[in-house]
Each structure stands twice: as structure tokens, then as C-alpha cells.
Specification:
Distance between the termini: 38 Å
Order of helices and strands: HHHHHHHHHHHEEEEEEH
Shape: globular
Structural class: alpha+beta
CATH topology of the largest domain: Nucleoside Triphosphate Pyrophosphohydrolase
Number of helices: 12
Number of domains: 3
CATH superfamily of the largest domain: Nucleoside Triphosphate Pyrophosphohydrolase
Largest sheet: 6 strands, mixed
Radius of gyration: 24 Å
CATH class of the largest domain: Alpha Beta
């Protein structure tokens, strides 16, 4: 849950999730729609699917325990370089530096001051053994992240109370702000077409939209396009961001009793299946047609 989501956002979801799914065995036997429903609102739903897949692997292959070798941890679905190292440190107290944004900033400021053209990942990995704290891998990994988040933060570093300032090149250079270029996110236009049942408040959804970041989710028909379709009635325009993709959306609809084979009817108000928050935004807009 903490991958790509802030702690304060995660806490209520974590509490709700663990109240329902009390252990690894329960998780491994849960249905995907149950897990997605509990995850609903957190976004990046592939993480939930990877969590479910991982639980099944851990039960079947590792007797319900996380493997202690980093090579085996990395083979688990959704686990990359950072996650494998933080798990190794926090769970097995191993010497490992998990490099996230906070850790990068700490080492960058300490050793390179205001320079921002350094491959800090390569620097840490090359000198990793020099930075280890023996026998306290778990404390050290957590301390690095917390230090970067609280003391050596990005906007207002608390250099005056920092115990490392006498070693820090950033502090010695006068705490000059590092200027970094923000990556400009391109906005893409999409047309969304909604089949609606005129007699009852239902909408036709499919999992067959082949758009990568929207694969395998219940959605209306979506097409990447900037042109209008005269066969459909225009409803409205709105903007949304999913998985770092900026969407400029034109919403169309038509009332129809017939829908393509890949579609199914779903209630706009009382859906029992997992429906992503993006689809619910569409629900709110088409619901106005029934009022």
C-alpha cells in the first residue's frame, strides 16, 4: 500500500484491509474482486493484484514466509530493487540500503552539496558497504527514510538541528536551493462512450479496453481520440489523472438495449462488483440523465 501512496492516506485502508483479511492464508484464498473492493480508492490497482499473487506464491512455495534471499524476493510480483531491499532490512534485519527519494536526497546533500548532475543511485550502490550500520539493518533503513522526510526534507531542511551538518556539503555551501526541472506531463484526449439502459439506471461496462494503464478494469468503451463521433450524444468534458497519465475526456452516451458481447450491464447506484473510482466519476455524470 505504501508504494506510491502517502502514509496518512494508507492508514485507514490498512486498518480496514487487515480487519477483513487477518492473515496470509486468508489473503491467498481471497477472490480478486474482494481484494480490489478493499483497495478501492487507493489507485494503482496492479499493486493489489500483485499482493494477491505474492500471497499465493508465499503459501505454495515458501510455507507462508517471505524468502530471506534478495534474489528470491525480487522474483515476487510487483517487487523491485527498492521494495526487495527494504523488506530484507525491516524483516530480516539485513544490511541493505533501500534507495527512495528521501534517501537519495540525504546522500546527495551530504556528499555533493548543491550538485544535481550526480547518479546518486550508482554512488550509493558502489559505496554501500561503507555506509552500513552493523547488526541494526532494520533501524538504519527506517532511520534513513525518516531522516530524509523529517529533517533533510526537500523544501525546508532543518539544518539548524541536524547532527550531520558539520559533515554536510549542502550545509557548508549555504543551503542553496537545488533547481530541478519538472517533467512536463503531456495531456492526452480520450473519448468515452457509454451504453445506457433507458428503463433502469444501468451502464454497460467491459474489461476489454486495450489502453495499458486501464487494462482489465470495468469501464465503458474508451478510445484515444480528439475527434467527435456523430453517432453518439455528447454529455460533457472533464479531466482526470490515472497512473501519471493526464486525460482530457469527452463523454458520450446513447440509450440502447443491445450491447457488444464483451460488455455487461451494471447498476449505476448499487454495484456489488469492484468499480474503480475513475468509473464512479463517470457514473455521477451519466446519472444526471436519469433525473
Amino acid at each position: 500500500m505504501l508504494q506510491q501512496t502517502q502514509v496518512k492516506t494508507v492508514i485507514p485502508y490498512f486498518n480496514k484491509f487487515t480487519k477483513k483479511i487477518k492473515n496470509l492464508n486468508k489473503l491467498s484464498t481471497s477472490k480478486e474482486r474482494t481484494i480490489l473492493k478493499l483497495w478501492e480508492g487507493l489507485g494503482y490497482y496492479r499493486r493489489a493484484k500483485n499482493l494477491l499473487l505474492t500471497s499465493k506464491i508465499l503459501i505454495k512455495k515458501y510455507k507462508g514466509k517471505l524468502p530471506s534471499k534478495i534474489e528470491e524476493i525480487r522474483q515476487l510480483p510487483g517487487v523491485g530493487e527498492y521494495t526487495s531491499k527494504i523488506l530484507l532490512a525491516l524483516i530480516y534485519n539485513k544490511e541493505a540500503i533501500a534507495i527512495d527519494g528521501n534517501v537519495k536526497r540525504v546522500f546527495s546533500r551530504l556528499y555533493f552539496g548543491n550538485r544535481n548532475n550526480i547518479n546518486i543511485n550508482k554512488f550509493i550502490e558502489k559505496n554501500e558497504s561503507k555506509f552500513f550500520i552493523k547488526k541494526r539493518g532494520s533501524d538504519y533503513a527506517e532511520a534513513l527514510m525518516e531522516f530524509g522526510a523529517i529533517i533533510c526534507n526537500s523544501k525546508n531542511p532543518k539544518c539548524s538541528i541536524c547532527n550531520l551538518k558539520k559533515f554536510c556539503k549542502f550545509y557548508k555551501e549555504g543551503e542553496k536551493k537545488i533547481v530541478t526541472r519538472k517533467k512536463i506531463q503531456k495531456e492526452t484526449k480520450y473519448n468515452i462512450y457509454c451504453y445506457l439502459d433507458k428503463k433502469s439506471e444501468r451502464i454497460a461496462l467491459t474489461k476489454k479496453n486495450k489502453l495499458g494503464f486501464l487494462d482489465n478494469f470495468y469501464l465503458p468503451y474508451i478510445k484515444e481520440s480528439a475527434t467527435k463521433n456523430k453517432k453518439w450524444k455528447y454529455l460533457c468534458n472533464f479531466k482526470n489523472t490515472i497512473s501519471n497519465t493526464k486525460m482530457n475526456i469527452s463523454l458520450y452516451y446513447k440509450f440502447s438495449s443491445k450491447i457488444p458481447n464483451d460488455f455487461g450491464w451494471y447498476s449505476i447506484k448499487n454495484n456489488k462488483e469492484f468499480i474503480p473510482s475513475f468509473t464512479k466519476k463517470i457514473f455521477k455524470r451519466v446519472a444526471a440523465l436519469y433525473q
